[in-house]
Amino acid sequence: MQIMNYLIKFLIFIILLITLASTGHAQIINKILFTVNDKVYTLVDFEIRNNYLKIINNNIDIKKNITEFQNIILYSEEFKAKEYFLNKKEINDMYLKIINNYKANNTNIELKEIFLSLSTEDILKNIEYDYNKKIILEEFLNDKKNIIFSKDLSQIMNLYDINIKYYSFDIITVNQLKKIVNTLSFYEINSKLNELNQYNILYIYNEKKIINTDSIHNIIKNKLIENSNDFIIKNDSNIIIGKIDKKIKSEEQLQYTIFQVISKNNKEIDEISCDKIEEIKNNKNYTIKVNREINYSKLNNILKEKLITKNDYVLIKNDKNLNYLILCEIKYDKKYFENFNINQKVDYLVEKIDNNFVKKKSKEFNLKIVN
């Protein structure tokens, strides 16, 4: 039986070579790259895929990606196995769109040569590949609608990329932790992990992107509401010490109102916040200026890094006085950031779904890489 399978594959390969010799792809030295469910995919197939991607993206600099080709074939196998409906009208519409786009943008000689090297069959086949993947991913995403369109902590989630970094320790190590807890850093991670190892303290360190606050601990959720960045979670077996990092999602459609407090006597203010601005105004030692609705994109990098949420401030010292720059109002286009957030969630979920799908289906569909 094994000999018979080998002879069949060899015969297919010979037929491929004979067929290619009579086509525009004859100049490529063909070889088998991988098989899926014993179906052969060759260097010529890969070159066709790569040229197709250059055409639809109108970009000759797209890098060759053999993994992308392998993955798109796995999606096509799943499409066939599950007997999804193939909408031929949508396929033909996409084909016409590609043709029309080429006709409107065929000034690049190299792209023109690439386009002419592709047959109608080549283009239609690769459109089907993309269509198959789209349909399967849409089905997965339909099951994630509650995450994608969740409204929990909507302003915070719309405006910020939120990541948490945390150490998890066994509760029995609490006494050992007292030695280093005050210096537990989230910046020089490698150095801190080495220190934990030196003290023989067992730990787990992790970083996680938050796309949906429904699934996070209430302590972290409350810290987000309170605009506090540090958290500690204890239970009977573990203690978790963590930090919340927030970064602005997009520079577009975003404006800051910043109060500048100038200390004339070079004396630092013990407690400064937007709520205390009126109180500070009544003190003759301070001058206050208001910069309203500054476009975020025009701020320098230091202010972008330091001014993230309301009451964040930057202290600037010079020989004459002290300057406090306090963020007191954030104005943004709600619809723009809602859509931005939804798209970001979709991208994150698609990447996660894709990774899991490929890992599972590579085994199920017997992906074999040929060296």
Explained architecture:
By secondary structure, this protein is α+β, with helices and mostly antiparallel strands. It has three domains: 30-143, no CATH class; 155-248, no CATH class; 254-332. Helix content is 47%, strand content 22%.
Count up the helices. Answer: 14
- Major sheet: 4 strands, antiparallel
What is the arithmetic mean of pLDDT?
A: 86
Summed up, the domain count is 3
**Total number of strands:** 11
Q: β content, as a range?
A: 15-25%
Q: How do the SSEs run, as a string of H and E?
A: HEEHHHHHHHEHHEHEEEHEHEEHE
Give the gist of this structure:
This protein is an alpha+beta fold. It has helices at about 1-20, 45-55, 65-80, 90-105, 110-115, 120-140, 145-150, 155-160, 175, 190-200, 220-225, 275-280, 300-305, 335-365; strands spanning about 30-35, 40, 160-170, 205-210, 230-235, 240-250, 255-265, 285-295, 315, 320-330, 370.
List the helices and strands and how they pair.
Blueprint: H1 2-21, E1 32-36, E2 39-42, H2 43-56, H3 66-82, H4 88-104, H5 109-117, H6 120-142, H7 145-148, H8 154-159, E3 160-170, H9 174-177, H10 189-198, E4 203-210, H11 218-226, E5 230-234, E6 238-248, E7 254-263, H12 277-281, E8 286-295, H13 301-306, E9 313-317, E10 322-332, H14 334-364, E11 368-369
Antiparallel strand pairs: 1-2, 1-11, 3-4, 3-6, 5-6, 7-8, 7-10, 9-10
Helix pairs in contact: 3-6, 4-6
